[in-house]
Amino acid sequence: MLSNCFEKRATFKNFCWALGTPQDVYDVTCCQSRALLGATYSMRIAIKRRRAFTLAGILSMASIAVVNTATAMAPADLAYRNGYVYTVDANDSVQKALAIRDGRIVYVGDEAGIDVYIGPRTRVVDLRGRMLMPGLVDGHMHPINGGASLLKCNLNYERLTLQQMQARIQACIDQTRSREPSSWLEVVNWFQEAMLPAGTVATCAVLDGLKTSRPIFVSSSFGHTALVNTRAIQLAGIDAGTKDPQDGKIGRTPAGAPTGILEDAAQHLVTRLIPPPSPGDDVRAAKAALDALRKQGITTFLDAAATEANLAAFAKLQHQGRLTARAHFALLIEPSEGTEPQKVVSRLIELRHRYDQGAAAVRPTMTVRNVKLFLDGVISAPALTGAMLEPYLLPADASSPPIWQPGKSRGPDVYFPAPVLNALLVAVSRAGFEPHMHADGDRAVRAGLDAAAALRSEFPLRDIRVAMAHDEIADRSDFPRFQKLNVVPVLSFQWQKRAPDTVDNLQNYLGPARFQLVEPAGFLAEAGARIAYGSDWPVDPLNEWFALKVGVTRMNSPAAGPEYAARLGEDKGLTRQQVLRAITLNSSYELHQDGATGSLELGKLADVIVLDRNILDIPSEQIADTKVMQTVVGGRMVYSTD
Questions:
Q1: Are the C-beta atoms of 500 and 194 separated by less than 8 Å?
Q2: CA–CA separation, 226 vs 207, rounded Å?
Q3: pLDDT value, residue 54
C-alpha cells in the first residue's frame, strides 16, 4: 500500500501543496499516509460535486486520516542523524538525517524532522558528520568464482617473474601432498599481462618444472586465458591436430604443438576433466563472497555468467536467511546454443521458474531476469581476442625500438554471428529476459549495438534494459548510439588507468590514435550514455573504492611505479557524482531495480552504507582509502565495524 503511495509521491506532493500543507508536515503526513490523502481528496471532490455529507461520514473520514497519520509518524526502527546524507536523488541533494521502519526509508530530511521518528525502541546512530549514502550496486561480477578464489591456490594478481610464479605454485603443491599424484591443482588470479620482465610469455614448461605429477590448471585473472602443464594437455588429448573451438584458441608453437596456453572456449577442453565443485564447495564460495561484499558496502549484485550451480548455492543461503545482498543472475548462453533460440529460452524459463523470487522485497531475494552473451574475448596481449574493426599492430622486425605495423588479425569473429545474435535477443526478450553482453573490442561493441537496434525495432515500446559490459574501446561514431538505443555501458572503472595490461600489453598493439580511446567512460558520458558500474570480480581484487578513485582520476596508485603514474588517454574521466550514481542508481536501473534501490528516497528499500569519510570532500586520491563502517540491507545491519 505504501509502495504505491511512494511511487506517486510527486503527485501527492503537489496535491499537498494545493491543500496548503506545510513542507515540514508533508514529509510526515502527506506522502506517507495514502489514506489521509484519499480521505481528504474524497471530501474535496464530493463537496465540489455538491454531494451531501452526513456528519457521521465526515467524522469517519477524519478518523481514518488521524489513524493513518499516526501510523505514518510511528517510531522508526533505525534512525541516523547529524550526518552527510547523500541521496543520489534527481538533484543529488544532501540531507542531515534518515529514518528506517520495516525495512524501508520513511524519512529523509533535516535534523528537526527526525525527532518525531525516534521512540523508546528506536536505535539512533549519531553519524557525527560522516557520510551516509545508498548501498553499492555492482552490476557485473562473478561472485562464486570470486568466493572460490579466496579459498584456492591464489597468485593474488601480483607481478611475478617465472621463477616467482613457480615458487608460489610449488608452495601450494607442498601444502597438499596428500592429493598426489592425480588430483587437479587449480591456481587462480594469475596476472598474465603483468609478468616480469615485461613481455614474458609463460608456457607449459613453467609448470612442468614443478615437483609434482598432478595436472595443473592456472587461470588468468581476466578469466579468458589459462595455462596448463603437459600432464593436463595429455589428459585432454590436445595435440597439433586438435582444431580450435568456434570461440577459442589453442596456443601453439611454430610447428603446431600446444604451448599450454588456452584462450576462451579452448579452456573447456581441459575444464571438462576437472571435477566440478561440490554443492558444499559452492555454498562455501557463496558465503565467502557475501562476506567480502558486505565489507565493501555492496547491497545488490549481478552474477554475470550464472550457472545452475551458482543459483543453487545462493538459493540455499537465501532459504537459511543468510543472503545479505540482493542477488541478480544473468544466465549464460554459449555460442554453440545460438542457433536454437527456442531451446535456449525453454532452458532459461525452467531455471527462472525454479529460482526467481519476484520483485525486490525487504528481505534480500533472488532475481533471474538477465542473460549473458560473450561477443569476444579481451583486447590485451598476449591474447588479442577482442574483436577489432581494424587489425592489431605487430612489430615489423626485430629492430630496437621495433616498428609497429598493421598485422593480419582483427581478433576473432564475433562469437555470435549477427543473424544469430539478433534472433537470440528477440527470443529471450520476448520471454521476459534482458540481455547483458560482453564486448571488449570496438567491433564487438558495434555488433552489440547493432543487435540492440534490431531489438528496439522489434519491440519499440517495451522497457528492455540492454546492458553491454566492458566496452574497453569503441569507435567514436558509436558513442552516441548508447544513449540513442538506451544501451547501458557497464564499466569497470579500475581499468581506466595506466598499468601493464593497458600500456605494456596494449598501447603498441593499438597505436597512438586508438589508444586514446581506451576505457571511454568520459566520452560515453559526454555522449549521454547512462553509465553503470561492474567490478568484474575476481578479474581484479574486490575494491570498489579504488575503482571509484580511478574512475575520477584515471590514475593508478603511486605504488604501481613511475612508469604507470600518468593519466590514461585523453578521456577526461567522470566526476565524483557521476561515479557514485553509476554504482548506485544507474546500476539499479540496469537491473530494473531503480524503483526500489539506488537512491535514498521515501518508500525505497533501506539499503544504506556509512563511510569513514566524505568522498565528495577529500582529495580525489584518498577515495581509494575509504572504509565502510556499516552496511544495511532492507533495514537490517549486515556489517558493522563497531
A1: yes
A2: 12
A3: 46
